[in-house]
Amino acid sequence: MENTRALILKSLILLAGIMSPFFAWAYETNTHEALARATVEAYGQLHSGTFVSMFDREIVRGSSGEDFGSRPTNHFYDPVNNRGLTVWRGEFESSKQWARDTEAQGNYNCWGTIICFGTHVGYNDKWFSSPTDYSWDRAVYEYVYGDKARAAETLGHILHLLQDATVPAHVRNDPHLNHNGYGDADPYENFTGQFSQVAVPNNLQTPNFIGLSEAFDFTAEFTNKNFLSKDTLFKNYSSPILDSLDIKNGFVYSRFGHKVARAEVRINKKAGEFIKEIEIKFDDENDSVASDYWRVLSKRAIESGVGVIDLFFKEAEKERQAGKLKAKNVSQAELDFKETASKSFKVVKKLYGSSLNQEEYDELLGASVATAPALEPEPTPVTVPPQIARDTAPQKIEEPGIVAGEESEAPQTPLEESPASATPEVEETSIEPIPNPTPFPEMTPPPPEPPPPPQSSPSTGGALHVPPPPAQEEQAAVAAEEEATSTPDTATSTPEVATSTQETATATSTSQTDAAATSTATSTDPSSQATSTPALTTEFHDAPFEDSFDNFNSLGWSEINTRYATTSENCYSNACIKAQTGFNVIAKTGTPVLEGGFTIRGRRHIGFRTAIPDMFISYGPSENGEYVHILDDIPDDDAWHQYAIFWREGPAGLKEFCLLTDRTDPVSCSWFSTKVNDNIQNGIPIDTIRLDANVSRTDLGDAVWWDELRRL
């Protein structure tokens, strides 16, 4: 029923938009373009490269094109309730999800499979083929595989959505429908319509995002907690709180120093007593409040935009290494053909036999992921200090507060391969991303080394992620060289003895560097500070909750918006929970624990389009208090991974957190005192876990599983 109401509302809005395009949805078109130009200029001041400057017009055009048709109904994101625009019991997709939803964007002008008002992705159409698709994946795909003008325009659409997250009405569920000045106009948006030029602010603090979701959370949470819309003046949300703010000179002031609202204070005498009454209004006749809002929020829009452009180039480099989006760009007809052919092969092999196995046959069908083409040259090898090693391509060293730069735009020469080594096995292993590749010092094969211990996955770091420690192979080589230098007798021995010594030094240094890595990792995020790992004094055996998920919801899970179901298929142990098609949200609150930890198993598989997991921990429900977005990705390898989460009291009065992947020893932790936007003070315990999952089509293989939530 709610989906039907949303459908009717969107149809009426689209019809009204066709009749007259003057709905005031957020910033005016000229304001979006001005912010986009300032973002491009700011990025150019901080980074080298030519793409952004060459395609600045396309980026600006995309920033205004996002308001076409009915798209603005998906330009709201309430970070407190994790939802989009909600009106008349109908709920639209949030801008946070819309930005990543290739399927919805490609078919946004179609309802169901029959009623369409334009082009959409058909049965024989490639996944990245719709002219109405301006999603994040589409931007990365087009940039890596050829149409960079389309990539730039799509990036402009993403910047538009991020700019809307700096409009208080758009993050506080205030729809403010307005037509030609009639209706519920938003005073802040009316005020900002005058800005066609925006100068780059001074002292930009550009964030270092690890994912697009984090960018939306960072921006929307700041706006929601520190600003008001006309219809949410100190109501509907827990922040800002009037009693905690200063009232002076007729205005309410925030802790950041900007005006929050107009306050008219009166002293009235009632029943012989003088009573102080405060009347709150959004603004005065001089737009004093709106002016302060614009000063702060326009800067935040530019800062977040620069961070997203930097993230865009990092994601493009990952795609070149792994080629996941390229493998995804097939039609439903091709997927059905491959599935039918694969099933047929199983039958034929069973009846008549075959020298091929199933994996080899699927590879012949093109089911395996192909390596993405190299479009740009490898940068000249440079010596990168261990503390700034990255899991992406080598980047230039910049001053503190400057985010990573854009790569060169010159055509890239593909790597030459030896004919003798050009076998299918070599190509299969070549698709794995290699952090910070450096040339071997010699062409002779290196001596065998013991396998390195498992590392915390850089792709699943959540909001607390930092760059991974330096490659252990490099540290091992350095340790071996130092060992050889310090022992002349060994260094001058026969080659066989020298080789043995190097192997011993390598094995020794490998065990040493694992512990050393925890004290060298740093973060470029200006709002968080990595700390070195002191001697552990906390036993992390306490946890607020446990659940085997064998009998889901028997232990007090709160069903916020859940389609999770218990299943016994593909579980880690006995039964587990599996997200169903749609948006799944559950939360569990247990005994508050000041310092502790827990482990949980997670698994993800993309069979059709989308399966996006998220995990939050907090004190109380995350929508009501401070929380940490601890996990926002699980590898798409259809395998179970174990995540260990720890928290403890930290320095400077801020609680510290740690996330490990496929290991549980807190000695390996790199501790952090904050997520991107919020701090959790010492003395505040953790008692709540929240598990989210956004899944496109469970019936076609998209899935997220959770299992074995345990104390350590």
Automatic annotation (TrEMBL):
InterPro entries membership: PLipase_C/P1_nuclease_dom_sf
Coiled-coil blocks: none
Region of interest: Disordered: 404-534
GO function terms (MF aspect): hydrolase activity, acting on ester bonds
Keyword Transmembrane: no
Protein's UniProt keywords contain Signal: yes
Biased composition (Low complexity): 472-534
Cleaved signal peptide residues: 1-26
Record field: compositional bias (Pro residues): 434-456
Keywords: Signal
Record-given protein name: Uncharacterized protein
